[in-house]
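Spore maturation protein
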Amino acid sequence: MINYIWFFMIFIGICMGLFSGKAEILSKAVIDSAGSTVELIIGLLGIMSLWCGIMKIAEKSGLTEKISKMLSPILKFLFKDAAKNEKALGAIVMNLTANIMGLSNAATPFGIKAMEEMQKLNKDKVRASNDMSLFLVLNAACVQLIPTTIISLRAVEGSSNPAVIIIPVIITTLTAAIVGVTCCKILERFF
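Structure:
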């Protein structure tokens, strides 16, 4: 469905550019944006490599494992069925830990594994369980201690202080996670 929406938006944009007599401006904008996209990606490559290296050091030093141990009691309280399955809880903990450390790419395989394990525990195979819904909300609104992607984007775009957003990001993601968990726990009583 999203492909149709994108196609429709691009098609309408091209038609509007052609019918308004601004085809030259449109083609120049397309070429310029393609060039700036390549520049952005090349700029991000170095910074993301640096942050991924720092996060790998955090993983090897045992920092992510310590965060996992701190999260485990909280998650056992939040997840009723998944807490009974060590594989599911382990995948949830690793996913959230990777997200907290700003490693969203590393979190994805753990998220998929967590959903697979929770699906095995799910009694209704057609609908997501309460634990699955809660995990999805926590994954989307995960607290980030180090928002590496945003810091990298700000650095590439020439920000004088790209890391200034750390405290606001922690506050907003913590608020989003608390509101999301609260809503899930209230709604699971009705659905």
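The CA atoms of residues 50 and 128 lie 37 Å apart.
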